[in-house]
Amino acid sequence: MDENRDLFWTLVEPEHPKARAFCRKLMGGRDDGDDLYHDALVAARLHFAELRDRNAFRSWLYRIIVNTFRKRISRPWWRRRLSMSDADLENAKTFNPAPGYASRRLLERAFRAISTEDQALITLFEMEGWTMAELSKLNGRSEQALRVRLHRARRRMREALVRHDPDSIPGRVANVMTVEEMLCAVKKSDAD
Q1: How many whole angstroms from its chain centre is CA 92?
Q2: In 3-state terms, what secondary structure has residue 120?
Q3: Looking at the structure, do residues 41 and 117 belong to the same domain, yes or no?
Q4: How does pLDDT run along the chain (192 residues), one tens digit per residue?
Q5: 3-state secondary structure string across 78-109
Q6: CB of 1 closer than 8 Å to CB of 49
Q7: Which of 3, 12, 27, 48 is 20 to 30 Å from the Cα of 82, by its Cα?
Q8: DSSP for 133-168, written as a single string
Q9: 155-169 exposure pattern, b = at least 16 Cβ within 10 A, e = fewer
Q10: How many domains does the chain have?
Q11: What is the C-alpha to C-alpha distance for residues 138 and 124, in angstroms, rounded to an integer?
């Protein structure tokens, strides 16, 4: 039993920073993301004995994270309000978060048009830099099927943005900003 526990944590350790960051992006914030990550780790630890191939640990862990996200979500993360920390308020004099927030609001609107599974797929591919081969292993689908799924999800996201009030500023931005540009802007604002 102790060997299993030690092996589990040994396998988690190299994945920890990126998996936690992925959870935070899925949930749209640090606290909710950390809660999701904790819940996923508990589930993974409980089912670790069922993992047949230790080399598939990374994709197995992310599948548990995505499943935990799908089960946990009672309302999409885009409905949660972003709050500024004390550090953000201190840095407000020198940092302009408006472009990042505008991109995030557009992304939130676009994410409403796709499933939680597609949200996770888009986040892993566009924001976390996973390859098609890694996503294929994670989802148990061919790379071509995932390319089609990503294309359709992006199209639904674009359509949702264009359907939004075309006279509003976000509507006009949606007509010129691609989904990929929006995701890059959010990724950049998360790094700042």
Answers
A1: 26
A2: helix
A3: no
A4: 467 888 999 999 999 999 999 998 888 788 888 999 999 999 999 999 889 898 999 999 999 999 898 887 654 444 444 444 555 555 544 545 556 666 677 778 888 889 988 988 988 888 888 899 999 988 889 999 999 999 999 888 888 877 775 544 444 444 445 666 666 665 655 554
A5: HHCCCCCCHHHHHHCCCCCCHHHHHHHHHHHH
A6: no
A7: 12
A8: HHHHHHHTS-HHHHHHHHHHHHHHHHHHHHHS-TTS
A9: ebbbebbeebeeeee
A10: 2
A11: 11
Structure tokens at 111: 């994410």
**164 backbone φψ class: left, alpha, beta (φ>0; ψ -120 to 50):** beta
Does residue 121 sit in the same domain as residue 34? no
N- to C-terminal Cα separation, the chain: 42
Task: Identify the domain containing residue 46 by its residue range.
Answer: 2-75
Scanning the structure block, which residue is given the tokens 């500024």?
84
**Do 23 and 39 contact (CB within 8 A), yes or no?**
no
Separation between Cα atoms, residue 96 and residue 105, nearest integer Å = 16
Asked if residue 13 and residue 46 are part of one domain, the reply reads: yes
Q: How far apart are the C-alpha atoms of 125 and 123, rounded to whole Å?
A: 6
